[in-house]
Design a protein that fits this description.
With 292 residues, this protein is α+β, with helices and mostly antiparallel strands. The protein has eight helices and twelve strands.
């Protein structure tokens, strides 16, 4: 974990984080900028303004704690809302940019996303929210929509991912997957195409229960977009993540054997989670309405 003087400011924003261990690591480490995909123009004056945005969007976030950063550096709050029978806790930090610079904010964001204790954040130009539900993205997406921020999933150590092959569009990717392992019965889904491999079992009650497909394909504009998409998928703990990926695309598989065969044929990396071996939970294979 980066522990510079700037990081000390960021870590003090939330009361549950204390001053323990803020002095190790090189003091002259270069700052980490705010991620480029964070909307810099979405700013709030105070943590209460973030709470108000959540409430306005229908997330009735009840404040449990309010605090101020020393020397008028900003404010923080903790609030909770109910969703699907769960209590969703949100730790909100807002910086006064006349006191705290962009490099300090970038360092604070990085320190929270970086292992060994990575967190899922929603961030804007001078603020971030940690959505404390196992640090997954399901509820973070709702917070991002309400606040006009960007979901930042935990950073993970990934295998080396080939820069090629790249495909011009989803149909070209689907054709390549079809040649490798089959991709029939194609249909549009939220962010890509779903289809059936040749391994799909017509007599398997799980397959019959799950809309007749076992592959999901997503195409991205750039490799950077694909990397962000991969981190998002690995943070979705309730969705199986047997993944083959390269270039500007990701394909999720229900069956490990099918994924491995496709990865070999396409020259892709096979991704199962964090290389350190940290587990990512998945639902049982017959859980309804889960993809793929």
């Amino acid at each position: 974990m980066r522990r510079t003087a700037r990081l000390a400011v960021g870590l003090l924003l939330v009361s549950v984080l204390t001053a323990c261990g803020l002095d190790d690591g090189p003091a002259d480490s270069p700052p980490v900028p705010i991620p480029s995909n964070v909307p810099r123009d979405v700013r709030y004056v105070s943590a209460d303004e973030v709470v108000a945005a959540l409430v306005t969007a229908g997330l009735d976030c009840k404040v449990q704690y309010r605090g101020e950063l020393p020397r008028n550096g900003g404010s923080n709050a903790r609030c909770t809302f109910e969703d699907d029978g769960r209590t969703i806790e949100n730790e909100i930090s807002v910086y006064n940019t006349e006191v705290i610079g962009a490099d300090d904010i970038g360092d604070a964001i990085f320190s929270r996303r970086d292992p060994p204790f990575p967190q899922t954040l929603v961030a804007g130009g001078n603020w971030f929210v940690r959505v404390v539900v196992g640090d997954t993205t399901r509820y973070a997406r709702k917070v991002a929509e309400a606040t006009r921020g960007r979901v930042l999933p935990p950073l993970r150590k990934l295998p080396e991912i080939p820069v090629k092959p790249q495909y011009t569009d989803l149909e070209a990717l689907a054709a390549a997957v079809d040649r490798a392992v089959g991709c029939t019965g194609r249909k549009k889904v939220d962010d890509g195409i779903a289809c059936r491999s040749r391994a799909w079992k017509t007599d398997d009650p799980c397959d019959a229960h799950r809309d007749d497909y076992d592959i999901r394909l997503v195409h991205y504009r750039t490799a950077a977009d694909r990397e962000y998409g991969l981190l998002m998928k690995l943070a979705e703990e309730d969705i199986p993540y047997r993944i083959a990926t390269a270039g500007n695309w990701i394909v999720q598989f229900r069956y490990t054997e099918t994924r491995d065969e496709a990865a070999r044929a396409l020259g892709a990396a096979a991704v199962n989670g964090v290389e350190s071996g940290a587990p990512v939970a998945v639902k049982p294979p017959c859980d309804p309405d889960r993809l793929p």
